[in-house]
Amino acid sequence: MTGAQEIEDLLRECTPQVLGLLMRRHGNFDACEDALQEALIAAARQWPDDGVPDNARAWLFTVATRKYIDQLRADVARRRREDALAFATPEAELVARAADVPDTGRDDSLALLFLCCHPDLSSPSRIALTLRAVGGLTTAQIAAAFLVPESTMAQRISRAKQTIKAAGGGLAQPEGEDRAVRLAEVRHVLYLTFNEGYTASGGDELTAPALSTEAIRLARLLHRLVPEDTETAGLLALMLLTDARRPARTGPHGELVPLAEQDRDRWDGRLIAEGVELISRTLPKGQVGPYQLQAAIAAVHDEAESAAATDWPQILALYELLERTADNPVITLNRAVAVAMVHGPEAGLELLAGLAEDKRLAHHHRLLATRAHLLELLGDAENAAAAYREAARHTTSAPERRHLTERARRLG
After folding, report:
1. pTM strictly above 0.85
2. Residues above pLDDT 70, as percent of the chain
3. What's the N-to-C CA distance of the chain in angstroms?
């Protein structure tokens, strides 16, 4: 007997490797991914009782190959070309014991990440396909994490695979500038996945731990595949340093606890140490990008013994550097908080007044909540309470709405 979590972790680890092997042999992403999902389900059912095979990857590859052949046999007329390709493989190879499958030493995980983040796909489709094809999550698990019906997520994944098929997507890795662009897209998908897990955009729960945990796992995988890429290292460090605070982000009844009020003894010191070591090792290596700067900011927060001991001047300096990397109003919003902590609430409110003219953020609940917080620091309880109530009306997160409403009630 083997533990369920141990088996799940092994299946996640094997998923991109096996899918890469299937793609190399058969070339049909849609059919290969479906066949692998069936093999994963078979493993999840059999391995707890029968034990994990000596060569788990080979076992999955063999079963998935048989599933693939079964799919082709079920629709010979429509898939004549794929059928001929599959049956070109000697039958003896298809029924060979799993341990006999050759280990080529090839790892196509990075190529699969590139494929799942194809430029023809929308951002939600990239996320969903990455979690299923590379992360090994089932459609039901992804749907639950994003609070949508399983049928809706199944359609999204199916459309994504059809888009890749129409685009002729394969495992050929991009080169030169295109590779850098696609790598940035992969990082962005993992960043969005982590953020959705750390602060869910909707629903009754503040966090979706399965998503943030999977994003960290995939970021570790990406960092292993491109160890020389400093922005990937920065992204992983940012995730670790941020996720370290998750145990203290909610109270006993699931209520949101702001950073300044969190019990820092509940922060995960192991993740903090790993994140600080990683970003400290990465920053001196060359050009510093936005993920590295965000990780450095997170490290300053995490290393402070208390909220009062936070080095706000250093954080402000880092936000000023970060703001130069992109035209992003969220960065300016965060800088406004740092400005307020260094130069006073009035200075922060001046920055927010400019952001209110930006259509990308004008009615966003985070802008309204930040304005409320700075008004509260200024001592303007009446206007702060009104701003908290307005922010509560604009958020789709139930825990955030309750938190903002409670802040307004206290001031009222």
Report:
1. no
2. 92
3. 59
